[in-house]
Every structure is written in structure tokens, then in C-alpha cells.
Specification:
Blueprint: H1 2-23, H2 32-50, H3 59-82, H4 88-97, H5 103-114, H6 119-146, H7 154-162, H8 165-177, H9 185-195, H10 197-209, H11 216-243, H12 248-258, H13 265-272, H14 277-302
Amino acid sequence: MSTVLFKALAFVLMIALGYLAKTKQLLQQEDSQILMKLIINITMPMALISGFRTFSFDASLLFALAIGFGFNLFLLAIGWLFSAHRAADIRALYVLNIPSYNIGNFALPFVQGFLPSSATLCLCMFDAGNNPIGTGITYSAAASLTAGDTRLSLRDIARKLFHSPPFLAYFIMLVLYLPGIRLPDAFFDMCALFGQGNTFLAMFTLGLIFEWHLTRSDIREVLRILGIRYILCLLAAAAVYLLTPFDLITRQTLCLCLVAPVTTLSVAYGLACGCTHSMIAALSSVSMAASFVLSLGLLIVWA
């Protein structure tokens, strides 16, 4: 228990340091884009690659992939249905923020910090299913609501995925390892050295982008959107943990993935769809805070 609380405190301090750097004007919120580029292009791919050191393929990895894709599609359908008869920009917020998960910048640091390295592979498989939803399908649905002539094809979605360094790193390693090709330990040692910076950068960036500007009239809508999302996600996490036959590490990893916050891409996509900036920022910030509390709560219970 003390180890979990100590690491959780370190995570809180990393986030607080990022927020403090913004409030003291040492960095600007716009600087988070530079840090995100470092995370996406360097530290996250290296962290994912280092997780392949102990790679062993089993049925639980396929299950993680199916959950990542299938449950996201279910959440997308729920967002579409629950926003019926609302204004187009509000509907777009529902389909962008009820499905999709921030795995690389949020769930990955928790998994890296609290679970064995083998858990990273399960997380990667979940994210492989999650990625097409968060990088293309939700935007396609939201854009169709706000500007019916804007659509993304399956080819567009595939192109986005294979231009994503984390997904590409994962895909290449999987292609190498499925036929039994094993890379030397020295290579993994080097990748782990680079990947160690991912946890700090990810948590620091969360503090840097944390924002709260919301009028009273929008609070109810934000709480409704996130309430629907987290009720369904917690039910899914409980079902995975209690009803599936997989090992404990796999079930814990999937639970942390299922309570992760909304992907940061929902902010950019929401702006592109003409959604209210204050609601976009509030949804992202409250989702991060709620997911942090839920993830920490799970880790304390498991300890």
C-alpha cells in the first residue's frame, strides 16, 4: 500500500509541477504541443518497444484488442443515441467524448509505474483497437453531424494509424515477434532508457494543459456526458475484472485502460467541428481528474 501511495504522490507532484509551470509563466499552454510531439515521436514508442522484451502471445491479447475496438463502438453508438434531438455542436461533443481513450499519455504511465513490464503489451493491444476510433471514426461521426459533407474513409483512418509512431512501433514489433524473431537485450536496454522519460513527460504535460473555464449553463451538459461515459466504463471494468478468466495482470491492465480519460484528440476535433471552446476544455480537464482518481482508487484497492 505504501509503495502505491508513494508512486501516486509522485504522479500528483508531476502534474502539479506542470500546472505550476503554466501559472508562473515558465511555460505556456501552447508549449504542451512540443512536449506531446516528444512523447508521441520518441518516448512513447520507446516505452512500447521495451515492453516486448518479455513478449508472449496468448488469447488475452486478442481479447484486449476486441475490447478496445468493440466497446468503443458501443460507446460511440450510445453517444449518438443519447444526444438525439440536440443541437449539432452538442451532439458532436457526445460522440467525441463518450468513446475513445487517452492510453499513451495517461494509462501507459500508470501501467508502467505500477504493473509488471509484460502489462504493456496488453495495453498496446487495447490501444490498437482504441486507435481507429479515437483517431478517425469519432471525428467522422462528429463531422457528419456538424458538416454533412465532411467524411473520413477507411483509407484515411488506416493512413493516420500508420503515420502514428507509437502504433507503427507496436505494429513492427508485433510483425517481428509473431514468427519468432527476437531482438537482442542491448536493444531493449537502449529503448528502456529513452522510454523512462515517458511517465514524467506525460504527467507534466497533463498539468500543463489542465484548464477550467465553464459557465453554469454548460455544467449540466458536461456532467451528463461524462456521467454516461464513466458509468458504462466502470460497469465494463467490473465485468472484465470479475467475469473474465485471464490472469490478474491482464485484468488489472484492462481496467486501467477502461477508466482512462478521453483522448486529447477530442479537443482538436471538437474545435474543428465548431464546438464551444469552454466545454471542450472542461470535458478534457474533468475527464483527466476523474480518471486519475479512479485509477488511483483501483491501485489502492489492489494493493
